[in-house]
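Fold this sequence, please.
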Amino acid sequence: MEHSRPVGAAPYVPFKTFLTAIESFQRGLPDRVDRSVWPSHSGATQGQLLAAFRFLGLIDEEGCPSADLRELVQNPEHRRRTLHKILERSYTELGALDLAKASPRQIEEALRRYGISGHTHRKAVSFFLQAASYAERPLSVLLQRKTREPGLRRAGARTSVAAFTPARRESKTVRLSSGGSLTLVMDVKLAEMARADREFIFGLLDQMTAYEQGQENGAG
């Protein structure tokens, strides 16, 4: 079943998490996509993934996979081209913009029309620009620079950028409620890793981010 227009707010899940979710289905695409298909992710991330899949027309309201999702999963060699088509169809508010000439402010204003604001809006901008770059859509120099800004790598999006850049040493630290801290240090080439290794690492990062958010909410 295909959607004639996007459903809900624009995606704001980290793009790399979204791409890994697509790749995980290469082991077998279920008849229904729901939270249970991503058991290693936090509940918040699962919800963001489902919302992104609905917006992009990859599943219907019942979670049934669309032809586009099957194409993304079954033909990875054409994945960039398929996503290019999906982005053009889904982001109708950006249809009048020439991304090769657009300014960051134009993208930000267009995405606000999807009912998102604040931190969620920044994440939605990050998702769109990372997705557009992956789908090989021409981007202006200013937009290319925006995809590399540190601000777009906060709150989980950090790993999205790392996947498209040369390997470097990365670390993430969380403060534990009982005292002390836990640090995850990575010194790997993410773009060259096996799918299982990527899923393992990003699963750990998602869990650490979810723990941080839980601590912040509890403190509030």
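The chain has one domain: 15-219. Residues 15-219 form one domain.
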